[in-house]
Amino acid sequence: MTPLTSFLVVVCLCFLLCLATGIDNDTVSDFYAADRSFPALRGALALCGDYIPATAVLTPIGAVALGGYDGMIVAASASAALGILLVLAEPLRNTGRFTLGSILETRTTGNATRIAGTVLTLVVCVPLTVVQLTVAGDATAYVLGLEAPGAAQVCTVLIGLLIISFAAFGGMRGTSVIQTGKALLVFGVILVLTAVAADRFAWSFGTMMEGAAIGGGGADVFHAPGLLFGHTKTGTFELLSLCLTVSLGSAVVPPILMRVSASLNGPSARRAARHAVVMVTLFYGGVVLLGTAAAAVVGAQAIVADDPRGNSALFLLADNLDQEAGGRILFTVVACAVFVTVLATVAGLTLASAASLSHDIYACAVRQGTVTDKQELAVARWAIMGLGTASVVLAVLLHEWSVLFLASFAAAVAASVILPALVYTLFWKDFSRLGLLWTLYGSLACCLLLQIFGPTVSGQPYSLLAEYDFHWFPLQNIALVTVPVGFLLGWVGSRLRPRTPMERTQHAEAETRMLTGVDRQ
After folding, report:
1. What are the b/e assignments for 289-303, b being 16+ CB within 10 Å?
2. Cα radius of gyration rounded to whole Å, the chain
């Protein structure tokens, strides 16, 4: 079966599953949170699906193959990220909220918090959607062997239209089925590829590591730190900042928060997070092995020659292993897994963005809670189509540009703004409205300032504006500075203007909900 035929079969199957499970979404709770009906194991699989985007399948394998020790450290950081969610999952579910703005609004009254939550949701989700669509277009064109100018952009548009349909019709139930199937498919592919690669080296991982060292430039290079960012102080800080971004930001992006809200109850959400931690740890263990195998089998030079970013390392490894078996089965299965991963991830991001606009802005801020479920769902579906179309247009326009800026910025905002706000909201009784707004807007401004004047925008060959140089901040990953700033701003703002009596009452009600799990929109 050719990759194109496989793609068509996968698309039809996904669309039918999405329609079958999501066609009866006629209430707000059902469309946004699947009526909070997911048991722990199903929630864990869907959570893994949300947590593993296409970039998590392609980029870490290339990072290990090209970065050796550094790439392994980054993969370990990614596997540790869900430990954060393990702490947050139960109180998050017990708030009974499903958007970032509504969760943060448990602390205070008024629309300012919901509006700020919507701004942050869009700031995180839209850039990540553009990055996923860009990677998807490139990967699809690569797999299908399309080298004509504009082929990747055409693939991006077609994939984007499919994803808009999935999210608009399926809602949380439909996207959850795709996420669950994607997680099982990706885990299966990683397991099979790992087994085939290990068999190539007679199940001797020492031999595989020796081959990786040879293919990666020598043992003193591949097994030593500094291969990704250089043996300098700046390189060390860069690696530390990247690990901090991955470990703190990945677990609190808005689709993950919505996924937690779909659990049956608080204990079920905690168990789902616990199961997901084990699954994701095994996944990244396989990623490290596959990256090592890619360095040994394909070689770093061949990977860089094919794609300087290393995103094709998985395809090259599968193709190489296929050649030994005399077919293209592994390559085709990997291509389908990546394709389903993109569909599920972008559908989740688009649904989270649309939910924030329709629920927090339209239903709560504009209509003050007087809207019917039918009206809100209509706005949500229009929002999905609007946001999806805008993301596709941006992905096409930015296709020849470096999207590293968007990925770095979105991840830094999640780690530096959303995480401090959630931790303080859920666990610090003295967190005030001023402290919340300072965290949300002050840390966001800090992230924007450092990212714009960092090397991802100007001054380097990989920069967005490579021909200009106005950067003064040395790190492309800014979380090492912005995460402490986010926590500090929340503490200072809360000390300058303590909680009002109304905020104390609000917190007491929120604390009761977090302990009892009483639902409230």
Report:
1. bbbbbbbbbbbbebb
2. 22
Task: Tell me the C-alpha distance between 162 and 340, whole Å.
Answer: 11
pTM of the model: 0.90
Tens digits of residue pLDDT in 426-476: 888 888 888 999 999 999 999 999 999 999 898 888 888 888 889 899 998
CA nearest to 228, candidates 310, 110, 287, 164: 310
Q: Residue 179 corresponds to which tokens in the numbers above?
A: 């996420």
Q: Which tokens hold the place of 469?
A: 């140089």
CA distances from 487 to 96, 418, 428, 432, 454 (A): 25, 10, 12, 13, 22
Q: Compute the distance between CA of residue 467 and CA of residue 342 in angstroms, rounded to an integer.
A: 31
Q: Which residues pair with 473 in a beta bridge?
A: none
User: CA 164 to CA 395: how far, in whole Å?
Assistant: 14
Token couple for 334: 């990997």
CB 360 within 8 A of CB 115: yes
In the chain the first and final C-alpha atoms are separated, in Å, by 48
Kindly report the length of the chain: 521
Among candidate residues 244, 292, 245, 253, the one with its CA nearest the CA of residue 60: 292
Contact 22, 170 (CB under 8 A): yes
More confident residue, 448 or 203: 448
In order of 4, 298, 491, the CA distances from 192 in angstroms are 22, 18, 49
User: Hey, what are 273's tokens?
Assistant: 């997070």
C-alpha pair distances (Å), 117 with each of 7, 92, 201, 355:
36, 15, 50, 11
- Report the distance separating Cα 193 and Cα 344, nearest Å: 22
Instruction: Round to whole Å and give the CA distance between 413 and 124.
Output: 7
Alpha helices in 68-111 (DSSP H): 69-80, 82-94, 100-104
* Three-class SS state of 458: strand
What are 284's two structure tokens?
Answer: 């990244």
Side chain identity, residue 203:
W
